[in-house]
Each structure stands twice: as structure tokens, then as C-alpha cells.
Amino acid sequence: MDAEKKSAVLREGFLVKRGHLVHNWKARWFVLTSDKLRYYKYEGGKRDSCLRGSILLRDCEVICPFLDYENRPLVLKVQTQHGVEHHLEACSREERDRWAGDITAVVDKLRGSQVATEDEPDGSRLHNFNLGKVLDSMYDVHSGICMSNHVEQGSTYSNCFSGSAVVDWLVFAQLALTRVEALTLASALLEEGFLRTVGLKSAEALRSGGLSEQFLDDSTALYSFSDSMKKRGSVKAETSLSAVELSGKVIKRGYLLKQGHRRKNWKVRLFVLRSEPAFLHYFDPTKEDVSPVGGFSLRGCLVSSLGDNGVPSGVKGNVQGNLFKIITQSDTHYFIQAPTHQDKMSWIDAIREQTA
């Protein structure tokens, strides 16, 4: 770790990395410095001191979002000057974009240029609006637009959504500031073939309407993703658990370490906190299956911080620290480890708000 100490840490945290030889996905702890992106393994709940790999960032190219994986819409790609590709998955769009922005800033600084100028504050070059980013957001398994069955003039259509639902979602996701702006954006998606009409009403509007009237902000006009644009795991995720559990608003999401109930080993899991109804689900980020591997209602739960002095009762392994515990209404105990003290307190506060 001496080399890391000599170079200031610009950013660190969990990302899921695709292997080069065996194309599986592994959760790794990444550390960004002024010229490298290093990654480590977590073993038994504690970061391995052995460096697993290092990416030299000089003359690298950062591609974000990288949309080649159907069930992994939160991937960014770092390609080295020698053509080696590193595919890294974050826990959310915001985290992915922050990582991509910070890595891009390092790359540009190594080139002798600056990302953030007066014309492009905070690395806005990376965040320029584009339809690919909108599609990436709509594909998101946990917070993307929901598809369901709709009936129009006696016919039932599956895996679709209404025009007003698209407009609502674009505004809620802050991809558009107003409904008028969202309607323009939805029209562009339809015009480019990313969305298609479903049923008679939307098809008639596309055929006969003017440019500003081809997409309808209407709860009875139906649309879906084009046949070439598969909804990334949404149907699978919606049917894997009760629709009620997954219908709540996503409040918080992130990578945390969870101790297993039987083997007591520690694994990195993607946690998703929802409200109305309040549920906490966790996913295995190394698997292609987008279904939760577990979850529970937060009704009647107790959450508490555990001290870092010594190993609390019920906890196994050489833990890093920043532990907290959730006790469900059925008296099941979950031991969870956050990357930092700040992350731990943020999760505890967010969960307590849902248990109140």
C-alpha cells in the first residue's frame, strides 16, 4: 500500500469488474489516484492488502454509458492506449457518472489539458445530453420505466406503457424540466425508432399528426420499446418477487458487505431501499440474473450501529469495520458492513426513516 500512500487518493469504492480471461464479474475495491486505477479484493469482510491489478490511465479512453450488456445498464468502459478494455459496473447512474467523470479528469490532466473550464463546468463534456443516456436510464432495472399490461378497445397489450407515463417518468428522473420538454424528448425517441407505437391511438397520431403531435402525452396512448431494444431484465425482475415489493420508489442504493446467515461469510451485495411500501432488497452484482437474492419488509425493523472495537456477537471473519445490524419483525438478524463510517450512518438514517 506504500505506492498508494505516496499518491493522493482521488476516489475509492466498490465496482464490479469483468474478468479478462474468464469473463465473469467480480466485486473489487477500486482506488483512483493521479495516474492509475488500482483494484483490490475483499476477503472475509476485509480489504486484501494484495494489489489485484492496476490500470495506467495515460491516454486511456472512457466510454460512459457503455450499453453492450443487456442486464448491466450501469457499466462504463476504460480502454487503455494499448487497446485493453476494462468493463466496470457501478451501483447507480450517479455513481457510474461520478467515476467516469473523475477518471476522465485524470486522463485529461495527464494529457496536459483540463476537463473543467469556464465553458464546461464540472466535466460537463461527459454529461452532454444524448438519447443513449436517456435509454440507459429507461432500461434501469430498479428505477427505469415500468412496463405492464394495458387494454385498448378490447385488446390487451403486454409489456408497454402509456404516453403520459413516459412524460411523467422523464420529468421525475430529471431528464426533462417540464412536461413540454419531456414530450419533445419522447418524440425524439419515437422518431429515432427507440420507441414504437402500440395499439390504434398512438399509431394514428404517428401517422397523421404533425411533428409536435406524433407522441401523445395521454394515458390511453400506448407505447413500448422497439423490438430491437429489449427491456433489460425488467420483466424478469418484476415477476421474480411480489409486484408490491418492487413497486415502491427507490430511495437509496449502493454496494455493501453482507454476512451470510449459514456460512457466515461476507459478500458484496447491491442493496436497494424502497419506500411505499418500505422494503430492502439485495442483489448479487456478479450474476447476470437481475432478480433479488433476498429482501424483507422494513415494517417493525430495528437498525443499530455496531462499534468497531472488537468483533460483536454474531459476527464472524476479519471485518473492516463500519458495521450495523438490522433485526426484522420476524427476529432475523442481518449484519452489514459499509465502506466508510459516513456510508454507514447514511444507510442507518435512510432505513430508520422507512421504519418510523
Can you tag this structure with a few keywords?
PH-domain like, alpha+beta, 8 helices, 356 residues, Arc Repressor Mutant, subunit A, 3 domains, disordered N terminus
The total of beta strands comes to 18
CATH superfamily membership of the largest domain, which one? Pleckstrin-homology domain (PH domain)/Phosphotyrosine-binding domain (PTB)
Nearest-integer average pLDDT: 80
Number of domains: 3
| CATH-assigned fold name of the largest domain | PH-domain like
Helical content, roughly? 10-25%
Low-confidence stretches: 1-5, 114-129, 231-241
The radius of gyration over CA amounts to: 22 Å
Largest sheet, if any? 7 strands, antiparallel
Order of helices and strands: HEEEEEEEHHEEHHEHEHEEEEEEEH
CATH A-level architecture of the largest domain? Roll
Structural class label: alpha+beta
Structure described in brief:
The chain has 356 residues and is an alpha+beta fold.
Question: Could you outline the blueprint of secondary structure elements for this entry?
Answer:
Elements lengths: L1 H5 L4 E8 L6 E8 L3 E8 L2 E11 L4 E6 L8 E5 L5 E5 L3 H18 L20 H9 L8 E5 L2 E8 H10 L6 H13 L3 E4 L1 H9 L13 E4 L8 H7 L8 E11 L6 E10 L3 E5 L10 E4 L4 E4 L17 E5 L5 E5 L3 H15 L1
Antiparallel strand pairs: 1-2, 1-7, 2-3, 3-4, 5-6, 6-7, 8-9, 9-11, 10-11, 12-13, 12-18, 13-14, 14-15, 16-17, 17-18
Can you describe this structure?
This protein has 356 residues and is α+β, with helices and mostly antiparallel strands. It folds into three domains: 125 residues, PH-domain like; 78 residues, Orthogonal Bundle (Arc Repressor Mutant, subunit A), CATH 1.10.10.10; 114 residues, Pleckstrin-homology domain (PH domain)/Phosphotyrosine-binding domain (PTB) (PH-domain like, Roll), CATH 2.30.29. The protein has eight helices and 18 strands. A seven-stranded antiparallel beta sheet has the order 4-3-2-1-7-6-5. Strands 15-14-13-12-18-17-16 form a seven-stranded antiparallel beta sheet, with helices on one face. It has a four-stranded antiparallel beta sheet with strand order 8-9-11-10. α4 crosses α5. The radius of gyration is 22 Å and the shape is globular. The two termini are 43 Å apart.
